[in-house]
Fold:
Amino acid sequence: MVVGLCEVSVALRGVRSLKDKRSVMRRLMERTRTRFDISLAETGENDSLRSGLIGFCIVSNDARFIESQLDKVLQFMRDMYVADIVGAQREILHWSGPF
Structure:
């Protein structure tokens, strides 16, 4: 099993309250989740108005597929122009369980 993890740092423009921020983050995450059917969540910067962190993961049996999907998800997020993607950390883990 291969797991791709990514944490995306976003900068938010024009946000005046935490309610506005939650709306922008929710829109970004829901559209991405719907398009790619992946697991993602807001993972940090919860109380900051101008920035946020979103984590997501992809599971497969092919590392090249995961690398490609990570790129596609990040590009999709950039192309929505809802928030500025200012950074992304990614890691691919190869796991062969105890069985």
In short: The chain is about 35% helix and 35% strand. The mean pLDDT is 92. The radius of gyration is 14 Å. Residues 29 and 56 are 10 Å apart (CA to CA).
